[in-house]
Design goal:
Blueprint (H helix, E strand, L loop, with lengths): L1 H11 L7 H8 L7 H8 L4 E5 L2 E3 L9 E4 L3
Antiparallel strand pairs: 1-2, 1-3
Length: 72
């Protein structure tokens, strides 16, 4: 899962975001149950989670988030 998240971030590039569900969908046909784990793993990686362009904690954010490479 971590590798898939980092691969998606690299494929998108430094200035682009992606929805964590894109990774979950790539991992399983029944992807919705994977979403909490995708967010948990994303929180451990050099990724930034945002909502409406503002940084958020992927573990506590409610609703859709976007992920991107951490520019730092």
């Amino acid at each position: 899962m971590a590798a898939a998240l980092m691969r998606m971030a690299a494929d998108r590039g430094a200035d682009k975001t992606f929805c964590p569900s894109e990774v979950a969908r790539a991992l399983a046909e029944d992807w919705r149950p994977l979403m909490p784990e995708v967010r948990r793993v994303a929180a451990t990686l050099p990724l930034v989670a945002t909502q409406g362009g503002d940084p958020v904690d992927p573990l506590t954010a409610r609703g859709p988030i976007r992920l991107a490479q951490d520019p730092g």
